[in-house]
Amino acid sequence: MTGIRLELLDDSHVAAVADLVEDPDTQRFTRIPVPPPADFARTWVEAYERARSDGSREGFAIVDDADTFLGLALAVRIEREAAEVELGYVVAPAARGRGVATEALRLLTSWAFEELAAQRIELIISVDNPTSRRVAERCGYVLEGVLRSVHVKPGVRDDAELWSRLPTDP
Questions:
Q1: Is 82 exposed, middle or buried (0-12, 13-18, 19+ CB in 10 A)?
Q2: In the chain, which end has fewer C-beta atoms inside a 10 angstrom radius, N or C?
Q3: pLDDT in tens, 111-169
Q4: Residue 94 DSSP label
Q5: Where are the domains of the chain?
Q6: Integer Cα distance of 42 and 14 in angstroms
Q7: Top-level class of domain 4-165
Q8: CA 42 to CA 133: how far, in whole Å?
Q9: Under a CB-based contact definition with an 8 Å cutoff, are residues 64 and 91 in contact?
Q10: Cα(23)–Cα(26) distance, rounded to whole angstroms?
Q11: What is the pTM of this model?
């Protein structure tokens, strides 16, 4: 997939994010509460904008050459002192199956290494999400193991795989 880019997540993306958070697979495989609270998309985007100022998180919209919203690419946790970052990605239903997640994760990974000087990047992926596991593999991430019965969100525990990438990985 070519022709996508990451742009800073802001208020202009709220409507598209609102549609995305209503998607059952997005709710299943992310930390978004189910059901999402009223105006969740707006408060979520605003939380990423606030975190941008203190450097603890960063959010990007995935867009194509026509400025169509394709999903989110997120640094959900940035630990600057430790030089560690947790990344995540969510692709809109209409954009799935076209390589968007793989290209977005490649771009996000490069950003984390170059802009944040990350020494370790982590992905936490549900064991029930083989599509996301394939994205991680394609982008050079290494499976470290399974976090058993980890708290994902209120009322939900799941087994999740821990994937990582280091700047020295091929």
A1: exposed
A2: C
A3: 999 999 999 999 999 999 999 999 999 999 999 999 999 998 888 999 999 999 999 99
A4: G
A5: 4-165
A6: 6
A7: alpha beta
A8: 29
A9: no
A10: 5
A11: 0.94
